[in-house]
Amino acid sequence: MNEINLDYQLFLQREEQFCHQPYEQEVEYYNAIQKGDMAFVEKWREKYNEVEEQPLAEKGMGVLSKDPVKNERYRLIANATIIARKCIESGLMQEVAYTLSDFYIQQADEVDTIKELQEINSRMVKEFTLRMHDLHFKQSVSGHVSKCLLYIYEHLYEHITLDSLAKMAELTPSYLSYLFKKETGITVHKFIQDKRLETAKSLLKQNEYTCMDIAAMLCFSSQSHFIKSFKEKYGLTPKEYRMRNHYKFAVRHF
I need a surface site. Which of 7, 33, 182, 248 has the fewest CB within 10 A? Predict the structure, then answer.
């Protein structure tokens, strides 16, 4: 195996006027994901997209392969590896972090264009960031509400009532309703529906369940109620959302 001639590699980079993005910026980016700071992550993505036509070297992103598609795939894998470990350090369950990382790397292995790889990378970053946001949110509320949040997250696929939550939290339904809205800013019912709709987005992106399947799994009263609620929240029907976001573009079941 030939040893790397580091001095020569540095010389070539200077000649080509290439430099990696500052380390501080990279740290800032991964810290934002750890904190669940979606606003920062979205601004970062917009900034990257502004120079999307530039070669990677000019963006300071580094070149890992002479093949552009392989280069984008390697970057995604490296990104997934770093993000998973950063999120574990900040409290995300190890199994959840590694499963997410594996899932998006497997998706990356099934596509062959830079655009598809960039879209997968964007979805991955967004999902990790949102999960970290929810994690920090749960840690910022009182014990009673935190216990309810954990119960809701773990039982989204089951019927949940205010009375059952109040009994579990050892509070009266009226006081739990008051406390929950005071600390989260929304009602128990609205919170549960929002989390179910977020879960529906993941199911639409990553699986091929029908609207009827998803409505039943997430305890919506009917398929039409699910479709109406989804469109009110996201401005798209579930079918339209899947057509834009499913990594295999699988819409045949609708």
Answer: 7
For 118-176, how does the pLDDT look when each residue is reduced to its tens digit (9 = 90+)?
Answer: 889 988 998 899 888 888 877 778 889 988 988 888 888 999 999 999 999 999 999 99
Report whether 98 contacts 84 (CB < 8 A).
Answer: yes
- Domain boundaries along the sequence of the chain: 6-137, 141-185, 187-254
**Measured distance CA(15)–CA(61) in Å, rounded:** 17
187-254: CATH architecture: Orthogonal Bundle (1.10)
